[in-house]
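Final paragraph of the annual report: two paired records, presented back to back.
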Amino acid sequence: MQLKELLARMPLFDVLAGDPHLVEVSRVEALRAGVDPLPGTLYLVEREDTFLAWIETYRHSMLFRHLGFVLPAPAEFRFPPTLRADVVVLRYIESQLPLDLSARILRCLYEWHQPSQIDAESLRKEIIEELLQGAFTSLETLLARARILNLALEHKRQVLLVDLEDSGAFYLEHLAKGEGHISLVRSRMLSLLREVLLEDSPYHVASLHGTGAVALLDRRGAADPTILAQTVYERLRREFGAVAFVVALGNSYTSPELLAQSYREAQITLEIRRIYGLKPLWITFESVRPQVFLHILQKNPEIVKFVEAVLEPLRAVEPRYRRALLEALVAYLECDRSVRKASKVLGIHPNTLKYRMRRLEELLGLQSIDGERKLLYYVAAKLSLLKLRLSS
């Protein structure tokens, strides 16, 4: 149900930020610290400090999209300037959120869907979502429910995730053509995904998910999952052209209970791709493990402070030139200190790189580093470049 439809049926809220036309909600939860954002969720907010801290933690995350928040009045919160248009903040009419507000919203969502319209496809999608979020108390019960719907989850081992490369740009571009057009694009995308999967095995399962789709790959598939992910991307590109989709693949596991981990890995893969500006539009978790390592380090301020201390002399350099020196250092170390190879990677003249390396030698004394100390300088430079990219 689109958030704008909910607002029309429940005139209890004012829109403080965001565009309700861009968000489709299917669940309601109370906002709690430490919980990963779940797209398609309407969060009820009780505490201002929890809300602001949560936004600060996740606003650079790919998961922080297609969300709604309900705040009690009066709400004079200072929203970050980078808040996405598909993150909608609502103000409730009273100064406290009533205890039954979640139930009232869910009732409205239920009435919108109409019980008669809840078919086997909807039930399968619900089971898949429970599995991916780990939101079940008994795996045996979940598998039994799935078998009734001809969904053999016990053989599923890996998650493939399809999403829009830039959902905000997509919705802004296509909204003028009507919501029916957007639904048609999503339906065509899902049909094509299922067609590709069926060519490999009749046991793979795919469902709409967020702004894209999710596929559970069966161990009885014939093709290598990596090749399958590439095939999915190439078929989507040929079919849709200007509509850019990205495809991510989590790791394979031995139990369906671990599909939530594979799903999380696929999400992290897309997030890492965005943060690091990686070019491939189909990408696997295995291929981004080094960036995941740096991403985890970057979230620990104490480690970052300790590692970046080796680059302290660079703080006196003007920021733009400091970035150029850091990029030169990374390329130089990645290319085994070959000026020719590193300058080619950077797309600059070898003499330009030589000048930058002389400057780095003056500041850092690079000729004396080797072994583990070389690794320390390399990690420090990569972390510094990541911070510069996130702050730009």
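The closing record of the year follows.
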Amino acid sequence: MNRDDDKKYFHLMVERLREISKRPIKLMEVCGTHTMAIGKSGIRTVLPVEIELVSGPGCPVCVTADSDIDAFMGLARDHRVTLVTYGDMMRVPGSAGSLAELKAEGADIRVAYSSLEALAFARSEPHKEIVFLGVGFETTAPATAHAVKSAVAEGLQNFSVYNLHKTVPLAIRALLAGDGVQIDGLILPGHVSVIIGEAPYAFIADEFGVSGAIAGFEPPEIMAAIVRLAGDINAGAPRISNIYPKAVKPEGNVVAQGLLDEVFAPGDAEWRGLGVIPGSGLDFREAFTSFDAAKRFAVERREVRLHRGCSCGEILKGMIKPSDCPLFGSLCTPERPIGPCMVSSEGTCAAYFLYNDDANIVERGRP
């Protein structure tokens, strides 16, 4: 479709949603990219009053636990290490500053767009210990696995990964099984689903009676997912729908899945707001543990709770919205963030601050 067709389709979806909206429905967009797209396009402002959208734990930076933040901050201070990270992690606050502040103080910290870029540093600077900060879900984890396999093939001994990769379906299970969380339907992440396909989400409808729709990131695609969810919920017929078939195949990307299974095994992982979720992490298999930076540099992970006034954990569970946090927009802003939800380009607080979502909704008479 061209841009004009997109606009017509979008407005048709809005009208259709108004026709079928008969009772209050709470939907959660799991993915942080969806949160940003929803804010930028103003989708919340055109929804019927019966439809409420809340955000979920689909931002890898946001769900990184305080203990993990302090652990990789400690690693970055190690004079033996050159830490390579995605840009979103640079300003995440730890108990003693951020990676950006450490870099300003002289630590060798570099921003990269992929794990393969970190591998290139290791290849070109064999006298340095290059550590890639592996943060992300199933979307980015295959690239990390590929980098590790490439390091094996090339015999690179100066490359390792501080591994914080996590998997999404078990986080959704923990969310739906948790206390105080009431969700009628889920807008499921497009990028993750490209890798894992449809089947890993079946439990959402089968066990919890909640509908889910895999969606793309353009406004018409998101609206189509919302309409599908509202229709399924009103009909009392929970199911998992794929509204993004041009990118998401039922079986997913089997090559990427093979890479993940070869290099990683399920392990426990701590998620901000959700706690430790068994099996939701990706630990190195025995054959690749020499690339585990946590073991190579004996990284200590201590229990820590930072920023006690920050409500990021509750926001990631859809229990409150950013404006309900007492720090939002006053003590916590994108320029001076207190919690990671205000830092990341996929963070809910950053999206609400940037697009003034709550204020725009109130102006249009929605709660």
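Residues 330 and 336 are 10 Å apart (CA to CA). This concludes the annual technical report; the extension proposal builds directly on these records.
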